[in-house]
Amino acid sequence: MSKSIKKIGVMTSGGDSPGMNAAIRSVVRTCAYHNVECVGIYRGYEGMMEGDFKPMDARSVKDIINKGGTVLKSARSKEFRTPEGRKIAHQKLMDVNIEALVVIGGDGTFNGGLVFNKEFDFPIIGIPGTIDNDIFGTTHTLGFDTALNTVVECIDKIRDTASSHNRLFFVEVMGRDVGHIALNAGVGAGAEEILIPEENLGLERLLESLQRSKRSGKSSSIVVVAEGDKIGKNVFELKDYVETNLDEYDVRVSVLGHMQRGGPPSCFDRVLASRMGVKAVESLLEGKSNYMVGLINNKMTLTPLEQAVKGKTQIDRELLRVSEIMST
Amino acid sequence: MSKSIKKIGVMTSGGDSPGMNAAIRSVVRTCAYHNVECVGIYRGYEGMMEGDFKPMDARSVKDIINKGGTVLKSARSKEFRTPEGRKIAHQKLMDVNIEALVVIGGDGTFNGGLVFNKEFDFPIIGIPGTIDNDIFGTTHTLGFDTALNTVVECIDKIRDTASSHNRLFFVEVMGRDVGHIALNAGVGAGAEEILIPEENLGLERLLESLQRSKRSGKSSSIVVVAEGDKIGKNVFELKDYVETNLDEYDVRVSVLGHMQRGGPPSCFDRVLASRMGVKAVESLLEGKSNYMVGLINNKMTLTPLEQAVKGKTQIDRELLRVSEIMST
Amino acid sequence: MSKSIKKIGVMTSGGDSPGMNAAIRSVVRTCAYHNVECVGIYRGYEGMMEGDFKPMDARSVKDIINKGGTVLKSARSKEFRTPEGRKIAHQKLMDVNIEALVVIGGDGTFNGGLVFNKEFDFPIIGIPGTIDNDIFGTTHTLGFDTALNTVVECIDKIRDTASSHNRLFFVEVMGRDVGHIALNAGVGAGAEEILIPEENLGLERLLESLQRSKRSGKSSSIVVVAEGDKIGKNVFELKDYVETNLDEYDVRVSVLGHMQRGGPPSCFDRVLASRMGVKAVESLLEGKSNYMVGLINNKMTLTPLEQAVKGKTQIDRELLRVSEIMST
Amino acid sequence: MSKSIKKIGVMTSGGDSPGMNAAIRSVVRTCAYHNVECVGIYRGYEGMMEGDFKPMDARSVKDIINKGGTVLKSARSKEFRTPEGRKIAHQKLMDVNIEALVVIGGDGTFNGGLVFNKEFDFPIIGIPGTIDNDIFGTTHTLGFDTALNTVVECIDKIRDTASSHNRLFFVEVMGRDVGHIALNAGVGAGAEEILIPEENLGLERLLESLQRSKRSGKSSSIVVVAEGDKIGKNVFELKDYVETNLDEYDVRVSVLGHMQRGGPPSCFDRVLASRMGVKAVESLLEGKSNYMVGLINNKMTLTPLEQAVKGKTQIDRELLRVSEIMST
Hints:
- 4 copies of one chain form a homotetramer.
- In chain A, α5 packs across α6.
- Chain A is 42% helix and 17% strand.
- In chain A, strands 3-2-1-4-5-10-11 form a 7-stranded mixed β-sheet, sandwiched between helices. The first copy, chain A, has a 4-stranded parallel β-sheet with strand order 7-8-6-9, sandwiched between helices.
- By secondary structure, the first copy, chain A, is of the alpha/beta class.
- The first copy, chain A, has 2 domains: 7-143 and 265-310, Rossmann fold, CATH 3.40.50; 145-261, Phosphofructokinase domain (Rossmann fold).
- The first copy, chain A, has 11 helices and 11 strands.
- The first copy, chain A, has helices at 20-33, 44-50, 83-95, 107-120, 144-165, 180-188, 203-215, 235-245, 267-285, 305-310, 317-326; strands at 7-12, 37-41, 53-55, 100-105, 124-128, 168-173, 193-195, 221-226, 251-255, 291-296, 299-304.
- Chains A and D meet through α1, α5, α6, α9 and α11 of A and α1, α5, α6, α9 and α11 of D.
């Protein structure tokens, strides 16, 4: 390892996700392990421009591995999208001799990093932190596994009520552009139907599916709906539509909302975060830049940031088929 | 104990709540203990009119103490509100020699029971099962404690995100007419402000409170809002109002919804349900009728059903004051 | 309120329990509300003698209401049991003008406080913090409710395995001298038998009970055992005894151990802690001393510390009877 | 798909693990989807020899996806290890026209299946269900992910107490021959040291590590120990050894025990179980036999049962290194 780098900055940006703190801890401790200084940058690119920095040693990250959210906080920054903003940010980093960055976040975070790298040739490694699992170059983003557990636990509770009253519930989960949460949590929660942005089941087939479900003897049903589904109606309109078109359906809606982003990370996300933090720092120390750390085939990998940003994740067709079979 | 009663029916009615299954189990086992037959009545008064009955012995209720919802299901019944409906129901009970009832539910359930008792002099004991804690004659209804834990766990997760982004969240919890859930869970979750039906804080004082909170150095805030609060705006309108009237507030809304009714009951609710079931059956066996079982001063008590239905619970003024001090 | 007191110290001592942090937060914020300074004393009496103090303002206790353990740490102190030790401690308090104390802990903590008060006429109010619920003067100690939930969740998991394999499990829970945890969690977890220090079921009757349980059709059983039960054998000896004396029993042992003391407090414990902290500080400000704050009949009460220390809590006989009926 | 098979039997055997019920549900529903009859075999090979069978249709497996344990129960069978026993079992299957088997369990289960297949040329597909993750041919066995979450949640609670009292805890987790649970949960829980069967850290290096940990400013420590670690002392002897050889260490032991096997499965395990059930049934319908279904590189795979039984899983060396860096 070259270790010519003496000081590394770490920050979180974009929506928070469970496991970000575990990743920060890992970055900080890996730096300590290699005798590299580590500096926490608060509130993402916004804090970078303000020089909102704090040196972090191994002890400073104790007792955060199991905390949701991010101790470094997160924020959006309009100013950083301008060349002037980035110049200020760069100067702030130079002022305290930060020589490389680990940025934890999603697409937007990585895009910012790419531009910054291009303008100042500044070494950057990204860690994919988002519950949506919509980043190319890793089978799991940080927080995805935890969010799935949160969602199935919520739907388990909702099913108690659905079963007791023979009701149909539409449960909306996060996922504006991708249906990974809806599909996986839908299968995990035993949902009768799953509506995702990647597929348009169509309103008529939804009605048919619900009727078939009732004929087959199911007394209650859960339909999991991704925020960004393409069926043409939001979750409340869906309720009205079904009540109008199907007799004797007692329909309810539940929008799970922001709680999906929080909570103590699962063991999976803590381990993933720990591995990613090590890989990110050691990649920088090996002189690498402009990569995103990822998990592929259970191994740590590097994907060029540009690919990570441009690439699209695909919905798992096999799992879609499993979900159909399971609702037999 | 007179034990002239040979067969007791048990049913759940109205909205389900965690602990109902534990109460059913207790009723069934207490009957078995006293060598009294027990019959489960499905879907409340609706199933009673249909004769949807099932004999239950001690083994039939194993492994349900920790399940949310109600294995006897619940339903609303319009027909039971008519004298004809109740006559049919009574005949169905007579047909299988059910001589007394334990009804688990809330106000509506008890009202139905009162009328039924008046018309047919049929022995009835009520068990208060509702998460809202809005029944007079008991400090805790079945499911209230579990719902509080569910709500604070959700808000703990939301706070992770609120803190990470320096945001203000309005979190709507159940409680159309009473603020018990909002007040207790609000204090438990460390909410900065709590809006309940029993008090109208007023929009201006809410703004003042939020501004004071920010000045005091709080970077994020949670406001817990009961469904039925009297501030004059729903939770989404509140968001707009605050964003319009206060600068630099990033406001989000989360409506917790039906998951508050489900989930495995807390130990408190399981113990309470076990005690209430014993008290209900033994009260019937002692020849008592038209009472609701309750918990007062940690002891099992009986309150006339009529009082239970007419009486109003009061919000805990001391706790309101505690909540104000805690948001210092 | 007289408010002649200008500075209050707060500390935790003895075994930690969930809710201690919520109580510290409440003490600190109530002081802030009344414009009284508050000082955190680390590691109980040990830290008091070392002058290990930290001023605490309202913001310093944010985000701890939902944390188990105690941010002020806890320790045992031999030296404080000597007059010399207490003199040093008193001097340290005088040095920084601490005029009154809120001590959070159990019997040992209160005994220390009583002696200290006697020697120096130092105003002290106690808050009962222990999972054992063995303090006279309150129906619930801080942490008891949380520990019960932890125990029933563990036993729910153990029952999955017990049911799958038709096994008998002895589950040991905390409680050296009192059986409150065992009795309540035993009823909550649907245990077939509960062994507590207050009752000696006797080995033969245990065998009879297990055989009766099997005859009645139960395929698996859970026996909850308090650490300090008086049956004459520890939990591993019980296993051997049962396997020797009963045919075809596959017996397992699980000792739940220290996890019972930790974890995020339940809503109940958070609310209780918040109320107790307010009552403790305001009692001091009203000139009271040598009392323990308690919960009786859902209201905040004061019990003379001497009574709290000497008094014995009683096992709930009615609940014992409920547990017997439930194992029908 | 040939679909010449008309009836499939499904059973669970060996230690239970979370996700087994989800796998049973998936097998049953996949059969229903393909119009193949499905029969549940109770208590593994033991029940097979007794003809303890129950036809299962799609509705019979509702509401079990989220339950720990196995509704088909599990048992060990000595008799099945004899040719006579297996002959009886085979006859029982023939009697009801079961033509193929899905067996869910671990090594022992698969060995039984292999012999049975050899003797009667009976089509068998295995699903790896065990929390230990010690089966070759899959990166995750059913229940492993859930057990990891259970363990880290327990250690999170223990850490509350450890931190409050500046203590050292030895926490024993399951894993007689393999350290997968200890290593992953150890990293997830932020353990300072992890002792596994695959590595012998040595007693002296353990002492050194603990001392280094203390010098580095850590006030409390968690050491995770797999049941089968090779350090030469059990977890209680370790406590004594450390207390004898290191000054001022307050050491505690916690043996997590059987609760690690139970509880509602994580979303990961539910999805995995659903996928495995589909793959198992469809493999049989395609005429395949003697394979184990597995997850490799996020895809469903088939590994010859013989390899699955003989192969050894390897501890993840990269993760061991991560754990060392994390304890900096």
